[in-house]
Every structure is written in structure tokens, then in C-alpha cells.
Amino acid sequence: MCGIFCLLSLSPTHFEWDKTVYGHLKRRGPNSSRDLTVTNGNPCYQCIFSAHVLHMRGLLTAQPVQDDKGNVLVWNGEVFGGVTVIPEENDTAVVSQCLSSCSSSSEILSVLSSIQGPWGFVYYQRAGDYLWFGRDFFGRRSLLWKIDAEVLMLSSSAWQEVPAVGVYRIDLKAATVSGTMTFEVYPWAHAENDVPSSCIQTISESIPNSCTAVMNHSGLVLSSPVCPLNMSIPESLSETVIHPNSHLSFKDLEQLLASKEKNDEVNFLIDALSKAVRRRVLCLPFESQGSSPFINSRASVAILFSGGIDSMILAALADRHIPAHEPIDLLNVAFKLQEPKMQTESAKKQRKHKNKPTDSKTNEAGLRTSCPFDVPDRITGKAGLKELQDLNPERRWNFVEINVTQEELQKMRQERICHLVYPLDTVLDDSIGCAVWFAARGTGFIREGGEQSPFTSSAKVILTGIGADEQLAGYSRHRARFKTSGHEGLIQELAMELGRISSRNLGRDDRVIGDHGKEARFPYLDENVVSYLNSVPVWEKADLSLPRGVGEKLLLRLAAKQLGLGKSAVLPKRAMQFGSRIAKMENSHEKASDKCTRLLTG
Ligand SMILES: *[C@@H]1O[C@H](CO)[C@@H](O)[C@H](O)[C@H]1NC(C)=O
Ligand SMILES: *[C@@H]1O[C@H](CO)[C@@H](O)[C@H](O)[C@H]1NC(C)=O
Ligand SMILES: *[C@@H]1O[C@H](CO)[C@@H](O)[C@H](O)[C@H]1NC(C)=O
Ligand SMILES: *[C@@H]1O[C@H](CO)[C@@H](O)[C@H](O)[C@H]1NC(C)=O
Ligand SMILES: *[C@@H]1O[C@H](CO)[C@@H](O)[C@H](O)[C@H]1NC(C)=O
């Protein structure tokens, strides 16, 4: 993974750029930093490239990469398929070679379309004077821009998100002549006639009036790497009895699941997810090559781990592919619960019991006892750890308890996190951004034989479960939508959510995780996984007439059961901001969608 930067200036005067962004980029790519300037006299323009590389696999390839024709590439991505990269090669060099051999726009688009994996890039094509840039189909890598009259800046951090609707091309000759920039857009689409009409509007909203965005009328598009969403709705409503809020026992839920055999779908899903995880955990830096494996060697892969079904499945599948001697780090974040208030009767009782040694569990009423970090995700995380230990007792599972206090939260939010979450700005972005930042840092404690010892995860790859809820109807708003507008409404909601996941989540999470010199990887957003899930009709993925903890993400729950997981297969969704209790910490009555004043960078 990398921090990339490009400054395009159409004015002949030498342009000094603000190097504060440099610091952010260097944290993303600590292993090699280089700048490269391309100046052209006629037409007159200047491009400054800067790239900061985190070494992940193959030989370290310093960037920017310049080929013998004078083309320049800065690449923040991973090639997981579509273009062959053998383990000894570095994917940047391979992508550069592929682009270098292209002589037309359609060839460039076809190279970019064929790459499976996350990417953001800037490419200077010397022949014809073009500057290309863009993000992959889902927008899994952050790319931001800032546009002034004659200057365009692109970077992995700071400014406004480049909409992940396609790739962009600037004709530098034309731009120098007119003195303004025109962004030619080649959108992601299944076919020429399938380009979303909102595409140009989305872009126009994020560029100044002095610039224009145009669609290329030659009909060139990037072919979408996933198949279209299956829009079919069931002919007759399912006969299942509706149990809306019933409290079923674990046994009941298990029986319900057992009665829902969907073997083919479940096996296909497991197979696709397993391959997606495999592609994301192999070829990593810390693999001890040649030398004999140490039992206590460090993990190369970590998982953002709440013990919920999404992260449990990732852990169970990672266990299949990561060498047996290597540990896996499970990152579990908790924010300190506030001191219980004295107002209520039960709270007073709670206080009295405080001196006695008690089992530190949250009681029925949700009141806490001695341990302020025993938040819901910590409790389910520990239970999940137990399940994984049963699944593979030989594996060393490092359950990293990351306890965050209010003081530390405030300090790090001001110093770092607010810059990374930016340009996103809601209370929800603040909560998730902070929770993910502390989790990804991986600094906490692990327990060994009852002893707690300080521990920092050294894994450079972090798997996250994002994308499961958006595709398998995991959120409570999906239930609400299903109730009011049935399967049709639900399908529309799911399509809309997957479409906006880049601007809502992925850019932010990439910046937040990348800040630790670690790379976020999203198995649920693997092209083949999404394609498979898109092909399955919605009622196979979720059955929202069934109770919470079963109906939503039904297909995934069946997969979890098949993989041998236990109670975690029927845990209801708990959003990270509540599970980690960060939302409680701020002690105010703000809504998730409100602008968050704590994020103001001043
Ligand atoms: C990359 O940089 C990180 C942080 O400075 C360091 O821990 C790591 O060993 C470096 N990796 C290589 C391959 O140089
Ligand atoms: C990157 O990979 C290419 C192709 O495998 C190789 O020729 C090149 O030497 C590598 N780059 C560096 C800096 O090692
Ligand atoms: C569309 O793309 C083709 C190929 O790159 C190019 O020759 C043509 O000028 C473009 N048309 C517009 C309207 O930008
Ligand atoms: C972290 O929180 C856990 C509660 O899950 C607690 O048992 C542990 O003592 C805490 N560790 C530290 C060092 O605060
Ligand atoms: C959608 O699902 C239905 C029901 O399984 C199936 O018959 C149909 O072929 C699917 N359509 C697409 C486009 O995959």
C-alpha cells in the first residue's frame, strides 16, 4: 500500500506545494519515498509526483515508476487477480508494464477493467500528453483531490474524495490551450447503455465551476468487474410464520437454521469467501522464508474482531490458509465505560456491591460492575475467541484487548484521526473512524495463563468485515425498509448502499488504517464474492420475516454453521459504535448523522 500524490500545474510558474500532506503520506508508506517532476515546454505543464511505499510483497518497488517511454505511474493498489503477478514480482511494476504497452485509451481501460483488487492511481501518458487517474469499482483505496483554477492536486489523504464512478483523463494539450481543465470520464458500467445518469452530476458537484466533466461519447467504459444485482422478487410470499421480536433460545435458532438447508448456495458462498481470504493473506512480508518456523513468530495478518458473525467467518477462513505455526491477531477495541451514576436505586445497589469481589459481567439491566472495559464487543469477542480455539486448538490466537480511555481518545482525535476522517464529518464518521484507528493500531494487552502482558500487533494486513451487512441485509434499516416496501424496497436499498460504500466508508477506513502503515483488506468486497452475492436473489440472502439474529444475513449464518462456528452464528448485528461503546463516551444526545464538532480541524 502507498501514499501517492500528484500535482498538475498548467501555469509555467514554478509551483510550491504545501508539504503538510507529505507527513500523512509518509505514515502510509514508510519504506520508500520519492518525488519525480515532469516538465513540458510545449504544451506547457508541470506534474510533480510523490510516492511513499509500504512494502508488502515481492521486491520493494520504489515509486513513481517511470518507463523508458517517459510514462509515469503512482499506484496505490493490490493486484489479487485478472493480471498475473507471480510471487517474486511486484504488482506496481507489472501494472506499469501493462499500461506502458497500451497505445489507445480503450487498451488502457481494458487493462484497468481486468485488474481484480483495490486501487487508486495516477498515470501520466507521455504520448498524447494525458493524465489519467481514478479508483477501483468499489473505491477501496482513498483518493482525494483539490482543484484550483490551473492546479489539480491528487492525494491519498486530505481534501475531497474523488468520486469512484470511473477513471478520469485530462487532455493536457487541450487544457493548456484553454487554460481550464476538462475531466473526461470513463465510467464503470456493464455496458455502454448502462451508465448511471447521475455519474456526471456526482462529479460536477465536487469540482469548481471553472472545470467541466464530460462523458466520452465514443462509448468507452470500464467494464464492471461484478455482475448486476439480481432484482427478482419472490412470486409468492414465504409461508414462514412471522416471529418479529420473539426471544428464541439458542436451540430454537439452531433448529431454525437447520431447517433452512440451502447447501448449494452455502457452499458456493464459502468457496468464494475462502478464496477471497486466501488471496488476501498469502504473499506477505513476515512469512519466514527458508528459515525454520518459530512457534512464537509474529502474525502477518490481523482481523478487526468483535466476535460477531462477519469477523468470525473471516477468522475461521483465515485459519484455513495461514500457515499453522503462525499466530493470527484478533483486534478487539473497547472504550471505557463511564462511572455508574448514583441516581437510580439499582445504581446505588451496584455501588454497594463494588467492594466485594464480583464476577465482572454486565447484568440484565445493562449496568456495569468492576470492569469498565467489558463492553458488548469485548464480551462477544471473548466468546468468539473460545469458539475459534475450539475450532483450531493448535493455532495461536492473539486476542488483543485494546482499552481506550477518554483522555487518549481526545488526544489522538485531535492529533491524527480528525485529519484522516476528513472530508467526512458526521458523528458516525467520528465514532467509526476513532474505533477503527485504535483497533488498527493494535496496541493493547494479551492474556497468557491469566497474566496480562502488553502487546502490539505487528501485522501489516488487516482484514475487515465491511460489505457483509450492505450485501446480505444486516442493518436494522433493512428490516424497516422491508416492512414498509417489501422485497422491492429492500433490493433498492441494498443496491443504493453498495453504490455509495466508497464515499461513506471505504475511503475513510483506508485512510484511518493506512495511517499505521498497515493495509486494510476487504474480503466481502472481493469481485467474485460480490458477483456471486449479486447473482443470488435477495430472499436467499436474508429472510427478514425471521427474528433478529437469524433472518438478516441468513445465508452467512448458514455458512457460519457449516464452518463449525457456534453461538456467534446467531448473534444479532451490533454496530461498532455501540459494541465498542464509543458512542456512549461522548455522553450527549447527538444523532449519528449530525455534523461532529469534535472533528473540526481548526
Ligand atoms: C517498512 O517500514 C516499517 C516501519 O518503519 C518497518 O517496520 C519495516 O521493517 C519496513 N519493511 C521493510 C521491508 O523494509
Ligand atoms: C520490481 O519487479 C520487477 C519485475 O519483477 C523487477 O524487474 C524490478 O527489479 C523490481 N523492482 C525493484 C526496485 O526491485
Ligand atoms: C473519447 O475518447 C476517444 C478515445 O480516447 C477520443 O479520441 C475522443 O476525443 C474522446 N471524445 C470526447 C468527446 O472526449
Ligand atoms: C482491559 O479491559 C479488560 C476488560 O475486558 C480488563 O480485564 C483489563 O484488565 C483491562 N486492561 C487494562 C490494562 O486496562
Ligand atoms: C435471479 O434469481 C432467480 C431465482 O433464483 C434466477 O432464476 C435468475 O436466473 C436470477 N437472475 C440473474 C440475473 O441472475
UniProtKB/TrEMBL annotation:
Entry keyword annotation includes Amino-acid biosynthesis: yes
Q: Which GO terms describe its molecular function?
A: asparagine synthase (glutamine-hydrolyzing) activity
What are the alphabetically sorted keywords of the record? Amino-acid biosynthesis, Asparagine biosynthesis, Glutamine amidotransferase
Q: Residue ranges of region Disordered?
A: 342-367
**Which domain of life does the UniProt lineage start with?**
Eukaryota
Q: Does the keyword Amino-acid biosynthesis apply?
A: yes
Name of one Pfam family that matches: Asn_synthase
Q: Which InterPro entries match?
A: Asn_synthase, Asn_synthetase_domain, Ntn_hydrolases_N, Rossmann-like_a/b/a_fold
The family database entries (Gene3D superfamilies) matched by this protein are listed as: Glutamine Phosphoribosylpyrophosphate, subunit 1, domain 1, HUPs
Instruction: Specify the protein name.
Output: Asparagine synthetase domain-containing protein 1
